[in-house]
Amino acid sequence: MSNKEVKAALKSARDAIRNKEYKEALKHCKAVLKQEKNNYNAWVFIGLAAAELEQPDQAKGAYRKAIELEPNQLLAWQGLANLYEKSSQTDVKGDLADVYQKLLELYESGDKQKWCDVCNKLVELYHQEKKYLEVAETYQKLIQMKQEEGAEKAELHQLWKKMIHLLKDSTQNQDNKTEQSLLAAFEHAVNSADTIPGEDHQNLYKDFIHCLSKFPHETARLEKACNDMVALYPTVSYPLEVLCLHFIQSGTLSEEALDCFSKLLEMDASSGPGIIGFGIKCLQEKKYKEAIQSLTEGLQKTSQCPAAWHYLAEAQMKIHKHRDAVLSCNQGLKALGTPEGPSFQWKNLILQLKAKALIKIADADAAEEAIKALEQVVDASSDPVVLAIRGQAYLNKGLTDQASEISQELLLSHPDLAESHALEGFIHYSQKNYEQAEKSFLNAIERKAETAEYYQYLGLTYWFMSDETKKDKGKALTQFLKAAKLDSYLGSVFCYLGNYYRDIAGDKSRARGCYKKAFELDGTDEESGTAAVDISVELGDMDTALSILNEVTEKASTGTAKWAWLHRGLYYLRTGQPSQAVADLQAALRADPKDSNCWESLGEAYLSRGSYSTALKSFRKASELNPELVYSIYRAAAVEQILGKYENAIATYQQILKKTEDYVPALKG
């Protein structure tokens, strides 16, 4: 076959392909290859025809052969790209990327439009594969090419926005180069917008700030972006909200942070981050109740903020609402699991605070939960304060040996730490070794003089040590007063001050004041509530007694606050108001249906009201529960007598006289 015939055969092959006669084309090409086995065009045409005949392996082999012969010729590369693009096989994507890379190289010095088209295809391919770093690098080349070609500002702006769109899902991958490319794209897009200020630009700025807030190490850039947006859009609250949340999560409350909270609340009084910020400010100023109110309100609007839950729990701990603090810590731990949650810097703090709160609840179940919380603290074994908390948890659980082991270890390794000595004190106190407990608490106070709990326990140590130390003003009383001064929310200290003034000093008025304060601080403290009511009655101040009882019974749910219902029921019984007495005594029995004295009092109330049958049932129930209650048995007989059931009454009187021969009311009956 002459050179002329080769050309003619290739022309025939091209025409056959144009006419979709692919088998015919293959014949012509094979004829050429018999003559010239390294003919580039023949191999390319075979690739084209085989591809159309759905023979991908033959097509690929032909293109590869052509590329081998002429690596810098376009046709075979273009054909291979088309072949891979049509393939449904996933494993060709890596090969396709290599082909696109070669095409970029070949187009670079010539057809710029085709270079851009291939570049876009390559970017799309990388994006499908989630290869964000390659997306970033390739798209930057495209933008650079456009800049060199003198593209308009508006076109470049759209390109930067497209780059943002391509990379916005990469933030989970935490690849620093990709992250920097994304942030650079945002900065370019923000600065190249057509209308500033404008709605599109404002939304773009919001997206930029939202993106920055996901990167904990970009704080300087975040603060700058927020401040710049505030300057451009002074009525938009978004940048201030993000800035406030950033300050809250950072845990450092500078003047700048406080200023940011104030500005945000001025702009939007209902903003979650602003209200949380104000709550933290209150916490710093020791306004604990206001802090709890603001933090609770703010968290209803912005719940996914672990730091804010920690601050709320901290404020609740300050006023000894330990169960509330545990719930807040649990919410904080839940918020850590969300994408908005920061890196786990707050996890250790929340877990430690939760353990402290559980220890204050002081039962074995809470202690078990505290130990579990401490097990999740990172580096817990090397933190002496965490070890001391663990020691207290063991003590509350009744595991004194383990607690003692930790205590001895801490005293050796950290003799200057107040918590080491306090733990030793708690152990001695629990074992009633009061003299050793005294030494330990004095050591703890020497190292940390501002801790009310240490003075409280030193006071309790003196209270139980001996009658002398209990009565010695300089011992128990002094320590309780110091504790109360350091922590005016410590209800249990006011209860013991009440005990001191009532039992030792004989100052009922002052005792009542202390009990009232203790009860106001802790509405579950029945001892203080009861004592405040009893002393008020002794002092003839029924108004105060009733106001306390009314307040408790108004808030009480069914089956609770027995002491208050019982006290008020007895008051109504004494003052001739039997119907109210019946209602209150019934409420008391819902809380404790096995209280025989309460049944007896209810019988009296029914009797006073003239409800004889129910009175009889109540007296019988009282004597059933406690057969030693002779008075109830007598009252049952007396009611039977009133009801005309004389035989029953006589039998009951005789039953009493068998037990108590000289029980006069029964003899009279």
TrEMBL record:
The TPR repeat ranges on this chain: 40-73, 562-595, 596-629
Stretch forming the signal peptide: none
Matches recorded under SUPFAM superfamilies: HCP-like (SSF81901), TPR-like (SSF48452)
GO biological process, one term: RNA catabolic process
Alphabetically ordered keywords of this record: Coiled coil, Repeat, TPR repeat
Keyword Glycosyltransferase among UniProt keywords: no
Domain of life per record: Eukaryota
Keyword Aminoacyl-tRNA synthetase: no
Residue ranges of coiled coil: 3-39
InterPro entries: Ski3/TTC37, TPR-like_helical_dom_sf, TPR_rpt
PROSITE patterns in UniProt: TPR, TPR_REGION
A matching Pfam family: TPR_8
One annotated Gene Ontology cellular component of this protein: Ski complex
This protein's name: TTC37 protein
Lineage: Eukaryota, Metazoa, Chordata, Craniata, Vertebrata
